[in-house]
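Sample 1 of the test manifest.
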Amino acid sequence: MHDLYVKAIDSGRFTGDELTMLEQFAAHHLAYAQSINGLIGKDATNQRNEGVYSAYASQMTTGSAAYRTLQTLENTLVATHTDILSNLDNHDAATLVASIITVEARHAAVFGVLPSMNLASALDNTASSIAPASSATVETTVAP
Amino acid sequence: MSDNTLSRRELLRMGGLTVVGATFLAACGKQANVPESANIASVGEVPPTTGLPAVEVTDEVLMRTAASLEYNAIETYELVLSSGLLKGDYAKLSDAVKRFRDDHTRHADAVNGLAVQLGGKAVTCGNARIRSLYIDPAVKLITETGNPDAGIDVIALAHGLENLATQTYQGVVGLLSTSQLRAAAMRIGADEARHAVVLAQVLNPGYGAVGPTTNETTGKPNVASVPMAFGALSSVQVTIGAPNAEGAKTTLAMETPSLNSLVYDYVSC
């Protein structure tokens, strides 16, 4: 997720407050990766999921497509982290993941209210989990 | 001086001890016209008290408390719709308010369903303590005469309640005993966070208002859609009401339900 935000930032399509917002969201996801890796310890992979990255990166062809892609992936992460939470017994990990889920939901909602308010886009999450243990189908295609 | 004689100092000390002892014994004795009691002597009669039932913070109590907060939100949105506070530019928010109310009804049904599954009773009313501590005083401030910003203030209250609900669900993750319940809580908590973003953008719109910023005049934080990298569990500040002579509004600090505001098994609507 962090790397997809960096791709959007580096595209040169965004300036000013929009760029600042994307930089903030990128920093958030970097903090999540670092926090989760910190909990995992020596087993942490410390690298992105290449399959997810390439599937989504190829869809960020315009500014609006980038926003749709980022929103879809934020929604997917909300579903995925909630799915993981349902299988997580470690107390510290559960509280950390919960504190991440609420902000990922906020990120996704922001893309629904900006640049113009679309209530359904901000509030509805139809994305499926892509957690390895999930039985859900992996959906990496962004709706137009 | 010989050993069997008393000095003047020793004599005074013994006399003092005698007076203290006599006073103590007199205090322990019966007194005229005072009913006898097994308790420590007191003036007047204390009415008998009824102790609170022994309670435990269980998953069921946490789900019942969550349901009560959902009803607080439902009641507040009903008030917003019926009070006519959404006027002018804010009238277009009616659809959003109805959607939020319906979402909270769905959430209340969901958490009540879990409470019943756990052996408890469903809660179909707002949390009385949250209402009396936060919502009633806020509504009073918003609707008081001379408040020129009632429309935006009621949005600010709703925004505060959505943040409070988000934090409540996030907070109970550390208290619930099963991972399935924790996930169920966060499915709803994520929805509340989305509501908060929509309302935050009404209060402080634009890309520049997404992250944390500070009001240069007051030095206080502006409303932000995404105030922090991680979900906070701190108090929720709501600034509302008619401005005072200096132009400052009242700031209410709202906290997530604690031991005094949980909806225990014995609490009913």
